[in-house]
Amino acid sequence: MRRILLATDGSDSSLNGAKFLAHLPHDETIELTVVSVLFVPGQDKSNLVGDWIATCLEQERTTAKETYAAIEAIFTGADVRLKSIIRKGRPAETIVSISKEIHAEMVVIGATGHSAVTRMLLGSTSDYVATHAPCSVLVVRSTGGLRGKHPLRVAIGYEPSGPAQAAVEEFAEFQWGAQTDVQVVTVNPLYNEREEQRRAEAADLAAEQLLQCAERSTGRVIKNDHVGEGLVKFAEVNDIDLMVVGETPRTRLSRILMGSMTRFVLRHAPCSVWITRNRMIHGFHDKHEITASESASSDS
């Protein structure tokens, strides 16, 4: 993964994304585009004083430049090529538009709030970008692992499907090292021993694929009627820092609706959420078929 868009508004929440990326070991140069959108609420209304709007926009521009300087400092010595884009517009739509312009492979954006209520509401910009971006999206929340209080703890939501396998492969593009704890978690909503065994074997196989980039990778099976709820509870109980979920790339018309499981995890998980869309694997279902009823259950 080379082209990453980092959206920032100068807040601590958005800077967490830069700090997270700075700690990811990688084998190739990352082209990091730092995007700041200048927006004054109500600026399109004619009753606002022009000088006041100009002053606010100039303050926003100054903040954007200061934030970019802070991000440059964070990446000092890293194999990263930095570029700044400052543009006027509505933040969510502008970020998605720029992600298409630069052919970004990932958009990184901060989430606001840590309480159950604020997680459920999620920042409107984060929600829009996560739903509409044509590439993978990482919504960053500050957790103990990101603050260096303990080694990073990662959970990858998994089932025998193309998007889930693609998530594993995209995750493996980074070298996570010997300290990162990675659990490939599959949820069995059917309470069927045979199905549980099949899913356990698939999770273990996926975990084995990650051993070269993350030495502490294991498979786990949990039971829950709702896949998204099961993953969120797992994240809460195990103090997870990053949840990775795969999603099928969508057409321009259907992208307005995100999979219900993905949306549930994004809004309710107490940790950062990485929605992978880039590496769909054709023919994966031929080896690991799941029935239509199981697919419907996993997206409920």
TrEMBL record:
<feature type="domain" description="UspA">
    <location>
        <begin position="191"/>
        <end position="277"/>
    </location>
</feature>
<protein>
    <submittedName>
        <fullName>Universal stress protein</fullName>
    </submittedName>
</protein>
<dbReference type="InterPro" id="IPR006016">
    <property type="entry name" value="UspA"/>
</dbReference>
<dbReference type="InterPro" id="IPR006015">
    <property type="entry name" value="Universal_stress_UspA"/>
</dbReference>
<comment type="similarity">
    <text>Belongs to the universal stress protein A family.</text>
</comment>
<dbReference type="InterPro" id="IPR014729">
    <property type="entry name" value="Rossmann-like_a/b/a_fold"/>
</dbReference>
<feature type="domain" description="UspA">
    <location>
        <begin position="1"/>
        <end position="141"/>
    </location>
</feature>
<dbReference type="InterPro" id="IPR051688">
    <property type="entry name" value="USP_A"/>
</dbReference>
<dbReference type="Pfam" id="PF00582">
    <property type="entry name" value="Usp"/>
</dbReference>
